[in-house]
Structure formats: C-alpha cells, structure tokens
C-alpha cells in the first residue's frame, strides 16, 4: 500500500530552503525520488524549496545525509543543508548536540549551538592542489579570471567589485553561461560572485547548479570563496571570514598550510519554519 502522507519539516539556512524527511525507517522506499523531489520542490504548484534532504541510518557516522537539488538531481553535499539536517537530527533524537554524518563527499562533523540558534559544521580538509586558481576566461563573462575547486560540490568563484549592484538578470545570465560551459566544467558548476568588503568580510551571490537560479545563500560556495580569498591574500585567513549572503551571514574559518585548508568550519543559522505532512497532490 503506497504511503499517502509523508511527515516533513521545512527548514532554511540563510534563506536556502529545504524540505526534510526522516527516512531512517525507509519510508521513502519505492518512490522515484528524482520525480518526487522535482514535484515537491516546484514553487507555486507544490510546497516549493531549493532542495530536499533525507536523514538516513549510517554504519560509519551518527546518520547519513542525502541531498537532492530542486531539479531532482542528487548532490554530494550542501553546506546550508548540512546545518539544517544537523539541527533536524538533533531535534528528532538521531544525534546529540555534537555529531558526525556521512555524505557522498565524505564525513562531516557538526555542533548545534542552542544559545545562538546556529550550527557549526566542520568540513573535510581541502587539498590546495585540487584548486585551480587564476584561470583565464577569455570569452565574454563577468571577469577575465576565475577560480575553481571542489568543496563537496564543484564551485567557481569570480571576484567582482559590484556584487550588490548586479541585476538578478545578470546573475542568471552569467550563472547559466558558466554553469553550462561543458568544455570547462564537464559536470557543471555552481557559480559564486564575490566582492571583498574588507580584510575580514566578503559579499557573495550564488547561481546554483540543480536549482538553476540564484539562491539566497550557498554554504559550500561561501566556504570555497572564503578559502580562495585567503589563499589569494584578499582577506586575513587566520580569523573567521564574514560572508554576507542575500539571506544572512555565514562565518567561515580555516587554517592554511602548504598543502591543505584544514579545520574548515562554517557557522550560520538553521531555521525550522514548519512541520506537517506532504499529501499526494504535492508529488503527483
Ligand atoms: N546550496 C548548497 C549547495 C548545493 C549543491 C549544489 N547545488 C550542487 O549539487 O551542485 C550549499 O549551501 O552548499
């Protein structure tokens, strides 16, 4: 008998919003997840969100995070989603205030901080040799150089001096052009437009692969941009870097050595805005 009501939570981290389901008892078994996610994430005709996440059991950590983009594609991880799922795991009793969780991009750790209503997520180390810095971009685009790397998922970082003033249309047009530049980025890329505000802060806007639009914030993109800015000497890398997103502030800290960005932390909010039941009209 197919299930007709699916308990869910609606959460967001800096406005990057998610539908979250506790799938520890394999409630979602038998669903075509790609279609299901695409349908429930559609704004207007369904609940609507940038992504969908499931809390699942893990043999090697407190739980497994499964993350899907709004278009139904499964993503390896999501920074804002990680904070939300950590808070969710704590709320449903799947983890204590400190936890570890498994993703397709490795094992992450997190701490829920009830006093500030925030969550601090520790990323795996980022090997500096995996970053491609100062890559020329000769075709028409936002800048003549970009920076590329994997922080769980692929990211390009473009430093500009007028990020707040870019129109939504410019972000979407450049974002799509770069995201679908298959010659340079065969698996696509998230596209982050960043501006240095001072030695400790950046402003950032992100076009997200899988949402195919600008989102209010991107946690892994903010982390990628903060690390690249530190390596390039644009910010002080030995103190938290304040990332001003459209939906709020993320604080990124890390230590740079010759080979690694290690002790990579991302702290920010994780709001639980509703709980309820998804009904078949939401996914059919
Ligand atoms: N919003 C996310 C990034 C989500 C993953 C991405 N869209 C992809 O699969 O490429 C974040 O906060 O990190």
Automatic annotation (TrEMBL):
Active site annotation, chain numbering: 78, 78 (proton donor), 218 (proton acceptor)
Physiological role: Catalyzes the stereoinversion of LL-2,6-diaminopimelate (L,L-DAP) to meso-diaminopimelate (meso-DAP), a precursor of L-lysine and an essential component of the bacterial peptidoglycan.
Gene designation: dapF
Protein name according to UniProt: Diaminopimelate epimerase
SUPFAM superfamilies assigned: Diaminopimelate epimerase-like
Recorded superkingdom: Bacteria
Keyword Amino-acid biosynthesis set for record: yes
Record's catalysed reaction(s): (2S,6S)-2,6-diaminopimelate = meso-2,6-diaminopimelate
Keywords assigned: Amino-acid biosynthesis, Cytoplasm, Isomerase, Lysine biosynthesis
EC number assigned by the record: 5.1.1.7
Taxonomic lineage of the native organism: Bacteria, Bacillati, Bacillota, Bacilli, Bacillales
Gene3D superfamilies: Diaminopimelate Epimerase, Chain A, domain 1
The protein's annotated pathway: Amino-acid biosynthesis; L-lysine biosynthesis via DAP pathway; DL-2,6-diaminopimelate from LL-2,6-diaminopimelate: step 1/1
Quaternary structure annotation from Swiss-Prot or TrEMBL: Homodimer.
